[in-house]
Fold this sequence. Notes:
Layout: H1 2-7, H2 12-15, H3 17-20, H4 23-49, H5 55-85, H6 95-123, H7 133-158, H8 163-180, H9 182-197, E1 205-208, E2 213-220, E3 224-228, E4 234-238, E5 248-249, E6 256-264, H10 272-284, E7 296-302, E8 307-315, H11 320-340, H12 359-373
Antiparallel strand pairs: 1-2, 1-5, 2-3, 3-4, 6-8, 7-8
Helix pairs in contact: 4-5, 5-6, 6-7, 10-11
Amino acid sequence: MENWLNKLEFPSWLSTSEFWQHPAVILALTIILFWVIRRVFGSLRKRTKKTPNKFDDIFVHALEKPAKAMIWVVGFALIADVMAQDNQWAALSYRDEAFSLAVILLLTWFALRLITKRENQFLAHEVHSRLDETTVSALAKLARLVVVAIAGLMVLQALGVSVSAVVAFGGIGGAAIAFSAKDLLSNLFGGIMIHLDRPFKVGDWVYSPDKEIEGTVEYIGWRITRIRRFDRRPLYAPNGLFTQIVIVNASRMTNRRIYETIGIRYDDFAKITPIVNEVKSYLENHPELDMTRTLIVNFNAFNSSSIDFFVYTFTKTTEWVKYHEIKQEVLIKIGEIIEAHDAQIAYPTSTLHLQTTPESLQREFESNSMIASD
């Protein structure tokens, strides 16, 4: 075997190093390597789909395009080195800086793709986690911000700019920038506080008694929060506003309340006690009402045209539509109980008592009666 190899002679154009330094050869090798890498990633995608771990899927997917691009970057960098030796183009003197920038950008691209894919994986509930959508989005935004900041500093360093000088300049100009962009910074810190304190998250129904803000939270950014009103119009609120107003998160309620006042006629005063007792017994046995919460059914007031009792109870459900169905059922049943006791629900009435009838009105009434009889 060794004798055969010793006798083997390669063509002179293959045995010289100049052959491998030809731009066309480097380009051909780059294309071949690109094809190999493409096949390798195709095989990796098939294998990772078979594993129970979801992270390897997104890692391979995030790495694939930057890795393919890196093959071309390295190939063109080698071609640039060969051409620079012949001094063909003066612009090739910056090839080292260009190569460094390309590598930094490709690494940044990979990191951003990995963060975005992981975020989408969490939001699609492909990974079991206690993190909600708002927290996942906030962490992803913060991670992207850190990656971009580090990449920016690395780019400046690759271009020969002193990073320490940039930091020093940022410290000197920080006060001026903060003063000129105080509203922007207020909204930025407001967004940070929303992500930290978590008074609401994406999907929550919120409203403010201080402002005309009510709807479902659709998006929480670093500067603004988008709320979809119930008339389907979007409302964009600056995050700094939420540090100054009261926000009620209706989605976090544990129950919904039924609080109604019912009035019956004064003629049915003797029936108020059995009516109240039967209504209370009915509510105590209702399967959709939460008996661990306060339940009150009591005679409440002597009103101008009715005697009133009130119902105070809570439903188990917090769903808006189902709550109104239960409330309708309860109110109809209360009406049936009142009718079953031969009583009536009162409505506003007025009674006019006249002690004497003026003579002029008496004569007019008599004359009208005579005309009507004729």
